[in-house]
């Protein structure tokens, strides 16, 4: 299947077959796709929780207006923005670049300054908004990768972030939930799978200048 065929095949799955689970390899491929998502300055200022525990998912479902995907899908993925982005966070990233690329840290001074400026010039709230935006890019990569390997998914904003943070203890981890997705396999009777895609016409959406 070509990428565009895959993207037409995917849809926001409302009903998962709860008996079908992703293999460890499929799950790892999807997490790798998220890991490979680009981010502003490469900072990857969010973390990703992979939730399988049934009791936790029951509680989270309540905080997501009862949406059944939360408990019926193979896994629930929670993207969570970093809330404590300080100079240390930036320094750790520079260390990682130096180690990965085997470059002396002294050669990264200019970029280090750019990273620290980007962190220091934003208010705490602005940094969280910035982190949320990066998390959504991760979501996009997850959805595209899932479609590419024939795995169903539902992106979801219909949840109470404050409640999710509480249930998952995110505050203590320096995180706050951004957006979530469920992954798994569609139930054969999910009628949403048959619906035509509704999209704005290209003439209405794209502006060529
Ligand atoms: C950020 C985001 C949040 C969404 N939240 C929900 C949600 O809470 N529950 C749900 O069933 N679908 C949710 N959707 C799915 C959209 O309704 C769906 O993607 C859109 O109608 C287009 O349909 P398609 O994805 O099936 O092509 C969300 C989609 C996105 C991208």
From TrEMBL:
Domain Nitroreductase, residue spans: 8-176
Matches recorded under InterPro entries: NfsB-like (IPR033878), Nitroreductase (IPR029479), Nitroreductase-like (IPR000415)
Source species, domain of life: Bacteria
Annotated Gene3D superfamilies: NADH Oxidase
Residue ranges crossing the lipid bilayer per the database entry: none
Keywords: NADP, Oxidoreductase
GO terms for MF: oxidoreductase activity
Protein family per UniProt: Belongs to the nitroreductase family.
Identification of the protein by name: Nitroreductase
